[in-house]
Amino acid sequence: MMMTQKIALASGSLRRFAPRLSAAALAIALCAPFAHGFTRSAGGSGSAPVYLSWSSDTVTYVINDQTSSALANIEAGSDPISAVRRSFQNWGDVETSRLAPTYGGTTSATSAGYDGSNVVTFVDTGFAYNGALAVAQYWYSTSTGEIVEADVVFNPSVNWSTMSGASNVYDIEEVGTHEVGHFFGLAHSGSMSATMYPYGKDGSQTERRLDSDDIAGMSEIYPKPSFQNQLGAISGTVTRGGTATFGAHIVAVDANGRPYVSTVSIKDGTYTLVGLPAGNYQVYAEPLDKPVQQGNLGGYWSSASFPLDYLTEFYGGNTTPTTIAVAAGTTVTGVDIDCTNTTPTINPRMIGRQPAGGGGFSVSSTVMTVKQGEVGTWNIVIAGEGLTSPTTFEIMGSQVTRTSNFSYGTFGSGLPYVKASFDFAAAAEDVPRVIRVERSDEAAAITAAIEILPSEPKLSFEPDPLDPDSMLIRWYGETATYLLMRDTQSNFLAASSVQNSTDQHYSDVNAWTDGQSYFYRLE
């Protein structure tokens, strides 16, 4: 019985603000032997963590019955209950995970607490948020790691919506999907494009879509046989000058420059990157020295200090990294990385873009997007300590070409930046990319700092599992939900109202087709 075991409380949260600096056009101003791929929530303080998970694949949650657009801080016309349910279903839809979240209806419970019910609420006014958008609280056995209850609390002082994002308004499904990741046992990720990245920004909806790092995480905790049989892994040890390194951020980058899976090494320096499709990868290790830091992880990960006095190192060497071939259902072992034991002099940690013709720009510690085929369009700007001449950088993967020399500057705060123009070919794969930075004989990386989107919307039509009268229309990997009404005489589906939209609101009516049925959207 759980009553005989010590129960601990832990929490995870999505922070409201990511650091940002702006510049004007002319006057610049300012329990396992390995740690697994991604980062799992964990307790304990010994040599190996006690990883947290539910004992059942089917977990029931309930939503506070006041949850509606009638709340003053939820935008009129929003559908917060459906958005919360999709936040859970986004994880339930992972094909290589057996997780099956179950909606249990509404509840009168308003607050988080250890009360035998897994509650989602927007009206818990007694919780100390400390700048967080939302918080997942979970109670677990300290001896086994079994989660016995969890709650998700949305900050009632934040403005929420399920429609297209606006300044100072946050997307319920995006933030909810992040918190539900904590609910099921994931900690924060060091990959900027991951849903489990610890910083959010207003107006964004992109992290409704799970990243490969997120998918690998949930699949490792609740795996289907297909995850273990069809995907591979890489394991090894990170040291610095021969000393085992706790808290190193390790990343597997595929041939397209995509950071497919990342993780954090445990106290003996060991790691395993799981969920890798068969293919070729490079692996690097780096200190967690911003934007993600040790304080973003908590639990076991805060039980001893992470060293930061070592340089980023690619397996096989920074000059000519070794390519690692991964086969389905196998683990490549012995991928050991010994980093130079000295304090880094460069620390790239922010990204932004500037029109190639010049003008103002800003940088932040959240992922930046561009589109396929954007040629001669953008100066890509990275900022961080030490990024002075002769610092250079590349966007890893093919079909991305630098078309200018590098130029350098400094924000009013004194933080330096470097920028250059890049072309993104129409054939560039629409995935997140790693930015690799070099100066003299030192290398560094920003994991998933830039994400390439398709040049044209990728449409898919599917029934909404939450509402048989609705259809999900997805584009750019995001979801726009339309309430549809069937005309039995013509068999057309007419949109009766737009529930949310990705990029903009629409005013005319045009018909789209998936080859079988017709759908209307407001445009």
For this entry, give a set of tags:
disordered N terminus, 4 helices, 523 residues, six-stranded mixed β-sheet, mainly beta, seven-stranded antiparallel β-sheet, disordered C terminus
Main pleated sheet: 7 strands, antiparallel
Question: What's the N-to-C terminus distance?
Answer: 57 Å
- Global outline: globular
Q: Give the beta-strand count.
A: 37
Q: What portion of residues is helical?
A: under 10%
Query: Which structural category do the helix and sheet elements fall into?
Result: mainly beta
Q: Output the number of helix runs.
A: 4
User: Ranges with pLDDT <50 over ≥5 residues?
Assistant: 1-5, 23-34, 476-523
Averaged pLDDT: 84
Strand content: 35-45%
Overview of this protein structure:
The structure is a single chain. By secondary structure, the chain is mainly beta. The chain has 4 helices and 37 strands. Strands 2, 22, 23, 25, 27, 28 and 29 form a 7-stranded antiparallel beta sheet that branches. It has a 6-stranded mixed beta sheet with strand order 1-8-9-7-5-6, with helices on one face. Mean pLDDT is 84; it is low at 1-5, 23-34 and 476-523.
